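Changelog-adjacent note: as of this version, every example in the card shows the full chain rather than a window. The one below runs 274 residues end to end.
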Amino acid sequence: MSDAVTFVHLTDLHAVAAPHVEGDACAANLDRLAAVMATIGKITPRPDFVVVSGDITDRGDLDSYRRVRAVVEAHGLKTLYALGNHDSRPGFYAGMLDDKAGATAPYCHDRLIGGLHVVTLDTSVAGKVAGALCEDQFAFLDAALRRHPEAAKLLVMHHAPLVAPGTGYGWESLGAADTQRLAAAIAGHPVAGIVTGHVHYDRVAIWNGVPVVTTTGLHNANDVLYRDGLRFVAGGSFALCSVRDGSLSVAFVPLASDRRELAILDAATVRGFS
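Full-length structure tokens:
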């Protein structure tokens, strides 16, 4: 039996360098991130890495990325990032990677960590809530999956595949065509799991035999029992994960919360998102 690779899944930080208005719902998110990173830093044994699957900031501004980077780097944990619909590629490249060229290309990358091959895709689409994968990303994925063929694969992306056609709202996931193409792309490869965010609740779905793990994140929680739109409540979580011999194990770690109601969006408003 091989040694496990352990990692922490964070998502939906929605960090802001400064509140946008008085009472900004994102105002405490950097402090929450700092507290969670301190908790993660005390985990024994130390995780091999942390992965953040998008919505790193709420508005995609340079200062917010710089603040997130400072908080995360202070704890010395290897951290990988994906981009979500609230992120901005130019802001991310400049604030997190010191790229001043204003890059707009999808942020895709892969890395072998302790026998686990982590492949990160960028499902963000400028101006859209929904996610998608472009031709260049499928080309990147095809090439990445051929590297380290003996290693279990972990896919990281903000929007999950469409795991339950005909349910929910279209913007919650990749579209049907991208989902089908993704399924074809990973078929025959040792994909241990996919970690995602975006919808703000904890979920595990088995999709084409692959676990798709969604974590609530640090900003707020979505009440999954509410059916007339969206009801947001206080709360969040991160996930402590491990991969051993190609099998993924996940334990959700809830943040302490009174679960108070924060906001309700009616169904008509929610259906209007794209």
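Structural remarks: The two ends are 46 Å apart (CA to CA).
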